[in-house]
Amino acid sequence: MTGPDGATGGRARVFSGMQPSGAVHLGNLLGALTSWVALQDEADCVYSVVDLHAITAPDEHDPALLQQRTLDLAAVLFGVGVDPARSTLFVQSHVREHAELAWLFNCVATFGELGRMPQFKEKAAGRDASVSVGLFDYPVLQTADILLYHATKVPVGEDQRHHIELARDIGQRFNHRFGDVFTLPTAILPPVAARVMDLQDPTRKMSKSSGTVKGVVHVLDDADTVAAKFRSAVTDSDGEVRIDRAGKPGVTNLLEILAAVSGRSVEAVADEHAGSGYGALKSAVAEAVVAFLAPMRARSLELAEDPAELQRLLAAGADRAREVAAPTLDRARAAMGLLPPA
Known about the structure:
The chain is α/β, with parallel strands linked by helices. The chain has helices at residues 26-39, 63-80, 97-106, 111-115, 118-124, 133-147, 161-178, 223-231, 249-262, 266-273, 278-304, 307-336, and strands spanning 7-8, 11-18, 43-49, 87-91, 153-155, 186-188. The protein has 2 domains: 7-193 and 306-336, Rossmann fold; 223-300, Orthogonal Bundle (Tyrosyl-Transfer RNA Synthetase).
């Protein structure tokens, strides 16, 4: 990573982050991480384990577990193909500029726009008085995460697009008041399987927090576990394999997963399996997913067994991130009139 702007060697800069809040599942992988890996071929990529976001819910915060999950997530990110030679991967709290820029943006963002954020409304429902300020304010920290690096593209799931719009609004407001400091990002969505659904309840997204035990496939699940989960996947009673998200959510989910892991269109996969029956479809999806996950699982487990090497890679990533984050923060401080240290 070189230079303070949104491009390196003519390439766009990408930023994205993931919370260390539990085991990485197939929805995370197909909805976000495969895009992270692919983007390395065309962009200057900056990726972060966003541990500061993970402490915004005090009742869910276990300090020892957070440290272990941070290392576990880093191992999986490297394992699925984030390449430290081509991308910058670091732990958010290791780059202090994130927290400081978030405070500067707190003085630009408004209470009203944060209060309208859908995810805050959902998580705070019925418990407004006990919700942490961090949970209310985390979109501002997320804005700092992105704008520190002059990212022009941010790969997100469908339910995160409003956060990118907020980041644009805050960045534009800052630039208007204090001068052009920040690059305004755009959201990019993966082309297929952006919403992987729970195998037992295909009307809900696959989720580490609210998913069913048999409905969530984890990247580190062994082959037998993966196959068993797909064999028990909920479909419907008519036996016809076709795409119909509203009428046949379970079957459609299986087709979209198979398309994503095989690199084909959903239509091509549906045509291939038309008339084959649900048992054959489930077996085909299970076999394809097991083959897709096998090398990622092996690399992730190997790295997880060497925490010292993980720490070394993350420290090197933090040093590279700071090469851009520090001058960006300095420009923002100067623009707002803060006296520089002697």
